[in-house]
Design a protein that fits this description.
The protein is of the alpha+beta class. Helix 14 runs parallel beside helix 17. The radius of gyration is 51 Å and the shape is elongated.
Length: about 1450
């Protein structure tokens, strides 16, 4: 049945018989005979006229309807506004009579209207009459009237009013109405008669009553479209406060918890209407405001769309106004605060709007302050405040500045026993203070921190409060040491703080039992919160003024046992926290607890346990504890508590941990390192073959560093070195003396061998001999060897073997160093061994090794090997001497902190050096060279005087003599001079750079010492560069004059200094200093033929290549000499490796910017080609490992020698030479694709750029497919309609891929200064040519030359490309598709043929392949791009693919290698 259809013959509800119909049950009616005389006839008339008598006609029935209506009307007039009369009428049976009339006359609208209206007047505000009517079936009868006359406004109005009165009596009548479908009837009435204000008022009130607490009626109402009806009613009667009040109340129950209803309400405009109409028009009505804000909160809760809409229509301003107008009404304020919370929850936009509307400050300064006594308002306002500030730093700041912490602290103080207030307050406090140090400080000052601790104490049984309060406490103390100190010291809350930190993070799932907790996480939080420092402060005694004046804490101080237990948990097994505890004074505080609590067993036990946790495996704390007499305190605790097993055990453990370093040597084999090397080891009889690999040194270093970090190892009070007695061994100052005593000797105790023999698996021939002083810190020794290995053996640094006497000698056996013949000593045999490439001299800042006898002798022997003086003992032709030094530099100028930097002078042969450093901008301390030229073997010292005497006697020919050596001897001077020569060139550079007083005399003396004036030292600079002021260290003395500089340069030039030497930056002296030199010095240089780099590059290239040929020839004379395995080998032999190292040091590292071609000899067979390829790869890897950063190109082929190395500087010929030798422009070469269909990563092209302007080519990528069969070759490029360019598109065959395609045209820029904003873009069918560009095609004359006609344009224009159908864009994978490319170049305007470009500077780029059409962009100055294709040099001098050859008088090339550079 439709809800709009009237019920013509509804079922007649049975009117239950009531006692009021009987005259003897009139009660008080008998006491009012006058009124009763008026009432009883009407009651009788209602009953008699309503009787349904069969046989009466329509006229009689109508008459009775009129009679009933008139009787009802008369009765209503009697009782209207007369409660006593109404009560008398009810007692006289009027209720039953009216219900009887409604039942008997269901079809009469007049009867139904008048009877229900009279019934409403009769029972209004009378619970007894309402109950009586309900018991008599009045609810069902009224609802039946509503359903029987849905379209009758009068019936609906009076019936809804009657129903509203009926259900106002309580639960019974409401249930009756719900069972009778009263909700649906009310909604129908409301929908059909929305314009009737009285009906709407009653209907909304009735509907609110019916749906409250009844899910069934709520569903029924939703099904009847109650939301639409209520929305329509509210909008129709916007000015009716009663309608708005009850409509909102009904909507609250209909919408709550139902997302669909929320969305429906938003769609019908209720959100906007409530905010903009209801709350604004009824701002003075407290009841409407309360219900409307309640409704608003329901509409937006957890509904982002409704939240957003509410924020957009001005909710925040309305809320602010309501706070102001309804401040005194607690109920309204409570609902407003709740609505505000729902509107802003999880909505950053609404949070911002609320903050801008000042609502954060309003909540704090107005609501919370005005309603301090109201727990309801406090709870709601604090809850809302937490939402307003959640994850919004600006709102947090606003809350803090508004005094939120004071308000929260006051709420705690006044409502500490109210769980709801406390829960909201703790949550709001945490949200305001989270990650906000300022608010955390406010919380501390306001006493909120202490209040949270008190909450934890008073609400131990409330899990929710414990969880939130602990989380808030953790937020307040983590990363805030002051708050932690206040909580532990001021609030005595160590237990609460520890418990809070032990709780898992919010939302974190854990599978651990409830009693367990994550110790590592707790220790991390303890470190961040400063818990350790706070506990130490509490152990020392809390300051009297630390507690807040408003504190509500009930505990005076934390017990020592709790503090000591927290300290133990915070540091046990955590090295960083142990260090924090040590620096905070925890050791002194714990020891004070041991001494102060004399008879307290619990304190002593916890103190011993805490001290043990602090010092266990922490050498730094062990030293602090020993200094604080911890041993005495622990012994005292054991003495006092002899019968306490717990104290005795804890003290014993602490003592063992404290003195762990004393027995470390005995337990060293129990460590993991000792266990790994506890096997039988290997016996290496020849000490010279006991080289130690760098990786073995690093492993030992890690073990020693870890051991010294954990254990305080102390030098014995007696020993050979009196300076070390009783001193703790620390990593920073650990020397090889201590490494031997405390690590090597214990490790080799069971083997009676050298260290190398317990870590090696066999002989380890040394690659380098290490000359050093044992007193150099071990960590610096290892760092220097690491730098050396990386610079000399990049690809195998860890496996480089060094001969180090400390690790090669058996310290438990006889002295292996001194033999009858010193040259038969292990160190000498190691240096003479076949695989030893050279000596590594390790220097400290004081250059101590050059003051040690053994080191001086080793330096002398190294120089003899370098010069070939020991040819009778070894066939080595090359021997290197690399010098490394540690120097102290300032890490930061402001702080003055010092940092040790490692630098190196790498032997570049002939007195030259390559400088290497750990850090960019750090330079080798040339004071070492100054010390080197002052070496005097007579003044050197040795650890044992007998060693010094034996060496001097060996020099003088008294081999094996024990007599004192002579004080002077020519052999001493010979050795000294030999060592001086090693450092002479570097010292000459230092003198020229610093130009101190008497620098001319010093330089002259060094030249007499055979210092090589052309040796380079720093960045390829020679002494002449340094004298001219080109030293990058810029260390010239302030007293140096221009005259001294001129005279020094003249002296060097007179000694045949090379005036056109090029340094590592491709500069000559004239390039470096031409603009800064005085005129006379510059004239001096020019007089000696000084030129710029581009002018002498060809000669330098020839000289460099000649040097490379000579160096390589010495190591590659035959396959048997060069490769292990002879004619079938690919692994380089020792001689070949040394020659490559020399080539790297002497040439390639100096000219690191120059590409190098590796030519390798090969035969015609496939096997020979494969062998040559592998050999060339071995050479390339060896050069890279030696520190070369050049780009390498491998070119196997038929050649006379096994290996050639060729570097390329700049084009060797001038433009004039090019024009003289070649008149025709050469055609571009065929681009050969490798067999694997992939371009190599180092495929290169060359392209010219304008003189004096560094230009790079734009990216050009082109992927060519197979030419479709039958496709005609395009004959020309077409411009605008009718214009013929006259330039053919050349077809080339890409032999490697077997496909045919069209090369991309060349580009020529006619402007001297290209515009980087202009570009040439090629699409599938056309290309846009910017102004100033012309097009040329490979193999054809350039536009403007011969018969080619240029196509110049005054602006961008489209040029059709018919050849695009000639190009088949392949969709196959790149490695299966042949690829080709064109060449693009730019040069100044002016007609010149291709050969004319030979004089322009060439830049190196790399090849790229692309699946899409290319895009060519005009270049910009200094921009590094890439281009596709390969082009030979257009000069007559033939160059292979990938070789960059070019020159430019006015500019220097910048070379790039690799596909992305």
């Amino acid at each position: 049945m439709s809800e709009l259809e009237p019920v013509t013959n509804p079922p007649r509800p049975v009117v239950k018989q009531a006692a009021a119909c009987q005259p003897d049950k009139l009660g008080t009616a008998q006491s009012c005979p006058a009124l009763l005389q008026d009432i009883l006839p009407l009651v009788l008339a209602l009953r008699e006229s309503s009787n349904d008598e069969v046989g009466l006609g329509d006229g009689a029935d109508q008459t009775r309807n009129i009679a009933v209506s008139e009787a009802a009307t008369a009765l209503q007039r009697l009782i209207l506004n007369h409660r006593d009369t109404a009560r008398l009428a009810a007692e006289a049976g009027a209720v039953e009579a009216l219900l009887h009339a409604l039942t008997q006359r269901p079809n009469s609208g007049a009867v139904q209207s008048k009877a229900t209206s009279t019934l409403a007047s009769l029972i209004a505000n009378d619970a007894a009459s309402q109950t009586l009517a309900g018991a008599a079936g009045g609810v069902e009868i009224v609802i039946s009237a509503m359903r029987g006359h849905p379209n009758s406004e009068l019936v609906q109005e009076s019936a809804v009013g009657a129903l509203n009165c009926l259900i106002g009596s309580g639960h019974d009548n409401v249930l009756l109405a719900r069972h009778a479908a009263g909700t649906e009837a009310v909604v129908i009435a409301l929908s059909l008669h929305v314009d009737n204000a009285a009906l709407v008022r009653s209907a909304t009130e009735a509907l609110a009553t019916l749906v409250t607490g009844s899910f069934g009626d709520q569903r029924e109402a939703r099904g009847a479209k109650a939301i639409d009806a209520l929305a329509s009613a509210m909008k129709t009667h916007a000015d009716n406060s009663t309608v708005q009040e009850f409509a909102c109340e009904a909507l609250v129950h209909l919408v709550a918890g139902d997302r669909d209803c929320q969305n429906l309400a938003r769609e019908v405009g209720l959100v906007v209407f409530i905010i903009r109409v209801v709350l604004v028009q009824h701002s003075v009505s407290a009841r409407v405001q309360e219900r409307a804000f309640q409704m608003l909160g329901i509409l937006v809760v957890q509904n982002p769309d409704s939240q957003r809409l509410a924020g957009e229509v001005g909710t925040m301003d309305v809320i602010a106004l309501t706070f102001k107008n309804q401040l005194e009404n607690e109920s309204v304020i409570d609902q407003v605060a709740e609505a505000l919370g729902h509107v802003t929850a999880c909505s950053r936009e609404n949070q911002v709007l609320a903050r801008k509307a000042g609502l954060v400050a309003t909540i704090v300064q107005t609501v919370l302050a005005h309603h301090r006594q109201s727990s309801m308002v406090q709870q709601r306002a604090l809850w809302t405040l937490g939402i307003l500030v959640a994850q919004d730093s600006e709102s947090q700041r606003s809350a803090g500045e508004a005094g939120a912490m004071d308000a929260i602290a006051m709420a705690f103080k006044r409502h500490i026993a109210n769980e709801t207030v406390v829960e909201s307050a703790t949550e709001a406090l945490g949200l305001i203070a989270a990650n906000h140090p300022g608010n955390q400080a406010f919380a501390r000052k306001a006493g909120a921190l202490e209040a949270v601790i008190e909450v934890l104490r008073q609400h131990r049984s409330n899990v929710a409060i414990q969880t939130k309060a602990s989380s808030t406490l953790r937020l307040l103390v983590v990363a805030n040491h002051e708050n932690t100190r206040m909580a532990i010291v001021g609030a005595a809350g160590v237990d609460e703080v520890v418990s809070a930190m032990q709780q898992p993070d919010a939302g974190e799932e854990t599978n651990q039992p409830e009693a367990s907790w994550d110790l590592a996480h707790f220790q991390k939080l303890a470190k961040e919160a400063g818990l350790i420092e706070a506990v130490v402060c509490a152990l020392r005694g809390s300051p009297k003024n630390l507690r807040s004046p408003t504190s509500i804490c009930s505990v005076p101080a934390s017990p020592p046992t709790s503090l000591l237990g927290a300290l133990e948990d915070a540091v046990v097994g955590n090295f960083e926290n142990q260090l924090i505890a040590g620096k905070a004074g925890a050791i002194d505080a714990v020891i004070s607890s041991l001494r102060g609590s004399i008879n307290c067993e619990a304190v002593h036990e916890n103190a011993c346990r805490a001290l043990s946790a602090i010092v266990t495996e922490n050498a730094e704390n062990q030293r602090l504890a020993k200094g604080a007499d911890a041993v005495e305190a622990l012994t005292y605790a054991q003495t006092v508590h002899l019968e306490s097993y717990a104290v005795h055990e804890a003290a014993t453990l602490a003592l063992e941990a404290l003195c762990s370093g004393d027995s470390f040597g005995e337990r060293i084999m129990d460590t993991s390192y000792g266990q790994r090397h506890s096997g039988p080891g290997v016996s290496i009889a020849d000490t010279a073959m006991r080289g130690v690999a760098l990786e073995q040194l690093l492993e030992l270093q890690e073990f020693i560093q870890e051991a010294l970090r954990k254990h305080d190892i102390v030098e014995p009070l007696s020993g050979p070195d009196g300076n070390r007695h009783g001193r703790s061994v620390t990593w920073q100052y650990l020397t090889l003396y201590e490494v031997r005593d405390h690590f090597l000797l214990p490790l080799t105790r069971d083997h009676n061998s050298s260290f190398v023999e317990i870590v090696a698996r066999g002989k380890q021939p040394p690659m380098w001999m290490v000359s050093h002083w044992w007193g150099t810190p071990f960590n610096l020794t290892v760092r220097m060897l690491q730098l050396h290995a990386r610079s000399r053996h990049l690809h195998g640094a860890d496996s480089v073997a060094y001969w180090v006497d400390c690790f090669a000698n058996n310290h438990r056996g006889p002295n292996e160093r001194i033999e009858t013949d010193i040259m038969s000593s292990p160190f000498a045999k190691a240096m003479l061994s076949t695989g030893c490439m050279g000596t590594v001299l390790l220097c400290d800042p004081k250059v101590t090794p050059l003051l040690r006898t053994w080191c001086v002798f080793e330096a002398n022997m190294s120089q003899q090997l370098r010069s070939g003086a020991l040819a009778d003992r070894t066939d080595k032709k090359r021997y290197f001497l690399d010098i490394l030094a540690s120097s102290i530099i300032l890490e930061e100028k402001n702080t003055g902190q010092e940092k040790v930097n490692i630098t190196m002078l790498q032997d570049a042969v002939g007195g030259s050096w390559n400088e290497v450093s750990e850090n960019e901008g750090s330079f080798f301390p040339l004071d070492i060279a100054h010390a080197g030229v002052g070496v005097d073997v007579r003044n050197a010292a040795a650890s044992q005087d007998s060693d010094h005497a034996a060496l001097l006697n060996f020099l003088t020919g008294k081999v094996g003599s024990t007599a004192p050596p002579p004080s002077a001897h020519p052999k001493y001077e010979e050795l000294n001079r030999c060592v001086h020569v090693v450092f002479a060139s570097a010292e000459l550079y230092r003198v020229a750079s610093e130009r101190e007083e008497k620098c001319l005399e010093a330089a002259a003396a060094l030249l007499q010492l055979r210092a090589d004036v052309n040796s380079f030292v720093r960045k390829g600079n020679t002494a002449l560069f340094a004298a001219a002021g080109a030293d990058p260290a810029a260390s010239a003395s302030e007293s140096s004059s221009a005259t001294a500089q001129h005279d020094l340069m003249r002296l060097l030039l007179s000694a045949r200094a090379e005036v056109n030497h090029a340094n590592a930056e491709m500069k000559t002296v004239l390039d470096c200093c031409g603009a800064t030199l005085p005129d006379d010095a510059k004239t001096l240089l020019l007089a000696h033929g000084a030129k710029r780099f581009e002018d002498v590059a060809p000669d330098l290239e020839k000289t460099a290549n000649d040097s490379l040929a000579q160096i390589v020839a010495g190591g590659f004379t035959s396959e048997r000499q060069a490769f292990v395995g002879g004619d079938a080998g690919t692994k380089l032999g020792p001689s070949a490796l040394r020659s490559l190292h020399e080539a790297a040091s002497q040439v390639l590292k100096l000219y690191h910017w120059a590409p190098c071609k590796i030519g390798i000899q090969t035969g015609n067979g496939r096997h020979q080609a494969h062998l040559a390829s592998e050999r060339a790869e071995s050479v390339r890897l060896a050069l890279e490992s030696a520190g070369c950063t050049n780009s390498f190109e491998i070119q196997p082929g038929m050649q006379k020698v096994i290996l050639t190395l060729t570097v390329c500087f700049l084009p060797a010929q001038r433009p004039t030479q090019a024009r003289a030798t070649s008149k025709k422009p050469p055609s571009p070469p065929n681009v050969e694709l490798p067999a694997n269909n992939q371009w190599p990563a180092d495929a290169l092209i060359r392209a010219p750029a304008p003189r004096n302007n560094l230009m790079r080519l734009p990216p050009v990528g082109l992927q060519m497919g197979r030419l479709p069969s039958g496709t005609a070759e395009p004959s020309s490029w077409h411009g605008d309609p009718g214009q013929e360019l006259g330039v053919r598109a050349a077809r080339r065959t890409f032999t490697g891929g077997g496909c045919t395609g069209a090369l991309l045209p060349h580009l020529q820029h006619n402007a001297a200064t290209p515009d980087p904003e202009r570009s040439m873009t090629i699409s599938d069918r056309s290309m846009t040519i910017p102004n100033g560009w012309t097009v040329a095609v490979p193999g054809q004359p350039l536009p403007g030359v011969n018969d080619g006609r240029p196509m110049a344009s005054s602006g961008p224009r489209q040029v059709g490309l018919p050849c695009t159908r000639h190009i088949s864009w392949s969709q196959r994978p790149l490695n299966q598709t042949a690829a080709g490319g064109g060449v693009a170049w730019m040069r100044p305007s002016g007609p010149r043929d291709l050969d004319a470009l030979a004089g322009e500077r060439w830049s190196m780029t790399s090849i790229t392949c692309s699946r899409s059409a290319p895009s060519l962009h005009a270049p910009s100055h200094g921009q590094v791009d890439s281009a596709a294709g390969i082009l030979h040099s257009p000069s007559s001098r033939q160059r292979p693919h990938g070789t960059m050859l070019g020159r430019s008088p006015g500019s220097l090339p910048q070379l790039a290698a690799g596909p992305n550079q």
